[in-house]
Amino acid sequence: MNLPLGYKYSSVYAGIRKAEKDDLGLIVSDLPANAAGVFTQNRVCAAPVKLSRAHLKKSHGSVKAVLVNAGNANCATKTGMDVATSSCNALAKRLKVDPEQILPASTGVIGVELDGQLILKALPQLLLGLSGERFEDVATAMMTTDLAMKISGREIGRVRIAGMTKGAGMIHPHMATTLGFIMTDAVLEPRHLRDILDAAVNQSYNRISVDGDTSTNDTLLLLANGASGTKPNKKDREAILGAVTEVAVDLAKQIVRDGEGARKLVSIYVVGAEDDEDATKIARAIANSPLVKTAIAGSDPNWGRILSAAGNSGVAFSQRKVNIDFQGVAVCHGGLAMEFDEPDLKAKLDSPDCEILFGIQGKGKGKARFWTCDFTEKYIEINASYRT
Amino acid sequence: MNLPLGYKYSSVYAGIRKAEKDDLGLIVSDLPANAAGVFTQNRVCAAPVKLSRAHLKKSHGSVKAVLVNAGNANCATKTGMDVATSSCNALAKRLKVDPEQILPASTGVIGVELDGQLILKALPQLLLGLSGERFEDVATAMMTTDLAMKISGREIGRVRIAGMTKGAGMIHPHMATTLGFIMTDAVLEPRHLRDILDAAVNQSYNRISVDGDTSTNDTLLLLANGASGTKPNKKDREAILGAVTEVAVDLAKQIVRDGEGARKLVSIYVVGAEDDEDATKIARAIANSPLVKTAIAGSDPNWGRILSAAGNSGVAFSQRKVNIDFQGVAVCHGGLAMEFDEPDLKAKLDSPDCEILFGIQGKGKGKARFWTCDFTEKYIEINASYRT
Q: Taking the complete model, does pTM exceed 0.80, yes or no?
């Protein structure tokens, strides 16, 4: 992957998590980058989310660095805002920029005090380690229950785009999700970045679910430092929007494939709804149904659960017009059971990639894509003892 | 339990489910009973739900019998309405009443044809078996993944109330749930039954969740045949409403305690919200969070997940005003971590009864009770292979 020009990366083990793996990451843009961000819509949100929102506003979208830690969400703690603020201030001083040009991000357990001294002590080593090559080190340092590092990139002419993300549980983004950082070296104004990010998020992070729980720390940032010297015109910006969306979809799907305990990526397509909003509601209801997700875990072609979940979506549709395909096999037509080769379909459902097509007969043009994962015993095992 | 006067019960094995356990149940009122029913709000609903709704309307709430089968939901099948209609017609003929005085109910797998001949052939034996004592046989015949039979009763003066219900999964009632039949021998008009049932359901079945999935077959009926000869005045009706609500709450809690794979009944109390509706939304969000439910499975006092789930409820509240008690132990005060004895609380969470109190400081008078269960590996095991 060719990385965008003008960014440096570093990571260290600061001692925030018990396991001795890097838990503090840093992304620095040589020249301040223009930036846009989307954050969790959870009413309860973490100190770094509040501070990042405030910093972006105060700096009018000018960002020098992103400081990210894993192992502690810095949420619902007494010292949360102090820790986030003092970390940004100390880093800003060393980078000789304004504190509002630093965006903090945290992920990990909620309600446990984060020791700010650990971050302050680690900063010198973190800065010493900065390199244009250490992109994957940051992507690795922010992993929590993730089993796989998640990165993605695209090139559009001379413009490069590279993104990293993390997340495996508490994944049901609404306007944003988990942590994700997408960098480009194009010259882009904050208002264009905002449009690009909103459009990309709506097709990617807002279309995935692992467990229907929206995190308190979700943050997705798009940075553009202009280091490529390429200033896209309107048409070029559309190509960049397409490429950023592809990167965001790629990253979001990696999160779902790495969903806690998941063995399968489930792609849900809804067509024939009245509009895209209705289609998305139906897709989301199917994606969040534990009964659909456990059936897929067991390779059980129990399409009645898909129909029932759609019926709970709040969208009005006629049961008699519903067609359902499971792995390309028609299992339900006009709301009724189709004959199908059950052992054959069960075998097809053993694939790591499963596909559900939910179609409503008629003239409706509404459609939606959504991604989820199967729901296995391992999810329970992971989450029954995450904290201890 | 003293059963209401004037009802008879029967059950047989009709061969609808594979396991040779009774799968067809019958409740007959000696004199036609007045009745009210609430049914699933799922857009997709089963033939017996549609037919019961139509019969109640046509008969103006006069019910002679309830015919219930387990092992097949009679939903999303070609012959569904024919099977439900012909069963009611045949039974009505034998009981010498109008078909609309028979209410059918089904529970089991969706999308598999139900062989109506099995029911027709079983009717003679079913009728022969009618007895005033076989209440529990019907409660047992309608069990699917239930491990325990679920019944409850109360007496108010000379009036008796007895209810039975079933359900362990696909439980997230909205206006109704699963199957439940509550009988009384009071003299009550349909409009009073309607009011009593609506009030009772709102405090019971609409306040439970096992997995957040609302079934296609939910049906709850309240029958009053007047056999006690007691005609309650307005004050008496309030006492009956209270007793019916107690029966409904008792039945609903039994469903949750028997939730698929559940080892614990979790009671959630929300106080201090603006109004009861907001309180219910918060309680429901906590009850439906897989992360809260898995933490309880692991006896992990991870209250951050409770706070996060509440933050996703769509209700506006100030994080700084939240107090959370877990098993009577204050774990969060003013939105921040409290010091508590973690091994002690973990031990307390091993109890089969867990309690979450979510309070918002201030003058809000809104409150709600809600019940859910823990989420264990066993739920996945049960649901990954329910159909096959």
A: no
Helices and strands in chain A: count of H runs, count of E runs: 11, 15
B66 inside domain: yes
Within-domain flag for A70: yes
User: Do B37 and B76 reside in the same domain of the chain?
Assistant: yes
- Average confidence (pLDDT) over B152-168: 88
pLDDT tens-digit series, residues B313-365? 889 999 899 999 999 999 999 998 899 999 999 999 999 999 999 999 999 99
Record: contact B78-A336, CB cut-off 8 A: yes
Whether B164 and B218 map to the same domain: the answer is yes
Count the alpha carbons within 13 Å of B63 in the hemisphere toward its beta carbon.
35
Last-in-domain residue among B257, B281, B308: B257
Residue identified by tokens 């004895």 is B341
Say if residues B274 and B376 touch (Cβ distance below 8 Å): no
A269 and A242 within one domain: no
Q: What is the CATH number of the domain that holds B20?
A: 3.60.70.12
Q: How far apart are CA A121 and CA A144, in angstroms?
A: 22
In this predicted model, what pLDDT tens digit does every residue of A292-350 receive, in sequence order? 999 999 999 989 889 989 998 889 999 899 999 999 999 999 998 899 999 999 999 99
Q: Residue B57: in which H helix or E strand, if any?
A: helix B47-58
User: Per DSSP, what are the bridge partners of residue B356?
Assistant: B268, B326
Contacts of B43 in chain A (CB under 8 A): 310-313, 315-317, 319
Indicate whether A388 belongs to any domain.
no
A214 and chain B in contact, CB less than 8 A: yes
Domains: count for chain A: 2
CA distances (Å), origin A112, targets A107, A128, B254:
12, 29, 36
Q: At what angle do helices A80-95 and A47-58 cross, to 10 degrees?
A: 40
Q: How far apart are CA A306 and CA A293, in angstroms?
A: 10
Q: Tell me whether residue A177 is one of the annotated catalytic residues.
A: yes
Which residue among A288, A309, A383 sits closest to B295, beta carbon to beta carbon? A383
Q: Are A241 and A328 in the same domain?
A: no
Q: What is the pLDDT of residue A177?
A: 45
Count other C-beta atoms under 10 Å from residue B149's C-beta.
18
Q: Which of B58, B35, B5 is nearest to B228 (CA)?
A: B5
Q: How far is the C-alpha of A241 from the C-alpha of A232, rounded, in Å?
A: 11
Shared domain for A227 and A85, answered yes or no, is yes
Please report the ipTM that was assigned to this predicted complex: 0.73
| CATH number assigned to the domain comprising residue A338 | 3.10.20.340
Q: Are residues A220 and A269 in the same domain?
A: no
Range of the domain at B333: 265-383
Q: Are A204 and A256 in contact (CB under 8 A)?
A: no
E-assigned strand segments in A54-176: 62-72, 102-109, 150-156, 159-166
Q: Which one of A201, A230, A257 terminates a domain?
A: A257
pLDDT, greater one: A138 or B177: A138
Sign of torsion, CA A234 A236 A237 A238?
Answer: positive
DSSP secondary structure, B82-116, as one string? HHHHHHHHHHHHHHTS-GGGEEEEEEEESSS---H
Answer whether A45 touches B (CB < 8 Å).
yes
Choose the mutation target among B312, B324, B333 for the interface with A, i.e. most A CBs under 10 Å.
Answer: B312
Would B1 be classed as within a structural domain? no
Query: For B74, phi and psi rounded to 5 degrees?
Result: 50, 50
Residues 6 or more apart whose Cβ sits within 8 Å of residue B94: B123, B124, B127
Q: Rounded to an integer, what distance in angstroms lies between the CA atom of residue A105 and that of residue A67?
A: 6
Pair B99, B234 in one domain: yes
Between CA B26 and CA B35 the distance in angstroms is 16
- DSSP H or E stretch at residue B180: strand B179-184
B251 contacts chain A (CB < 8 A)? no
Q: Which residue of A has its CA nearest to B337?
A: A111
Domain match, A305 and A222 both: no
